[in-house]
């Protein structure tokens, strides 16, 4: 069973009324768009958006937020545009994807930067909890992946957090 199939199973077992067709469609688009891309760990890139979606599902977020989690890197890393996301999934999903993409441009090279970024997210996104949760989940997933990166890379990341 793939991670995405596990996510679907989790979504089916909740009391939330998820639009599984939209979630499946978002995964298919993201999977195709990220085809051939890998993370630094060597994993297929799609594992990251699926993991972020899983975190958000665990927080009880709605369909739009799960869809945005699956699509959050397609605008930044592929040929898909925010207008295409809007046409296929609506303005709310496009707003979430665009917001997370723009927040992703804030440097994220150390834990200190992460904390500053979280503070910035809190201030600027107090009106949009879904966008904030999506960005937190993305950052959290990235921190978890630090443990899988090469020792020299990890050393640089952690050294940069020291005063």
Explained architecture:
This protein has a single domain (3-159), classed as Hypothetical protein af1432, CATH 1.10.3210. Helices cover 68% and strands 0% of the residues. The protein contains ten helices and no strands. Helix 3 runs antiparallel to helix 4 (63-71). Residues 123-127 and 148-163 have low confidence and may be disordered.
Which sequence of SSEs, written as H and E, runs from N to C? HHHHHHHHHH
The radius of gyration computed from the alpha-carbon positions, rounded to a whole number of angstroms, is 16 Å
CATH level 3 topology: Hypothetical protein af1432
**Number of separate strands:** 0
Q: State the domain count.
A: 1
**Termini gap:** 44 Å
Q: Runs with pLDDT <50, length 5+?
A: 123-127, 148-163
Oligomer: single chain
Kindly report the name of the CATH homologous superfamily: Hypothetical protein af1432
Percent of residues in β-strands: under 5%
CATH class identity: Mainly Alpha
Share in helix = 55-70%
Structural class estimated from helices and strands? mainly alpha
CATH architecture: Orthogonal Bundle
Keywords for this structure?
163 residues; mainly alpha; Hypothetical protein af1432; disordered C terminus; 10 helices; globular
């Amino acid at each position: 069973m793939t991670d995405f199939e596990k996510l679907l199973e989790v979504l089916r077992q909740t009391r939330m009324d998820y639009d599984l067709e939209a979630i499946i469609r978002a995964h298919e688009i993201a999977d195709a768009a990220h085809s051939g891309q890998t993370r630094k760990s060597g994993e297929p890139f799609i594992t990251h958006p699926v993991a972020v979606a899983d975190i958000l599902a665990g927080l009880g977020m709605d369909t739009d937020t799960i869809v945005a989690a699956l699509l959050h890197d397609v605008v930044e890393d592929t040929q898909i545009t925010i207008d295409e996301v809007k046409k296929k999934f609506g303005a709310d999903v496009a707003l979430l994807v665009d917001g997370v993409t723009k927040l992703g441009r804030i440097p994220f090279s150390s834990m200190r930067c992460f904390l500053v970024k979280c503070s910035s997210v809190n201030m600027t996104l107090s009106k949009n909890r879904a966008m904030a949760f999506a960005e937190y989940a993305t950052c959290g997933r990235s921190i978890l992946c630090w443990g899988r990166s090469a020792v020299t890379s990890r050393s640089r990341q952690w050294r940069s957090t020291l005063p």
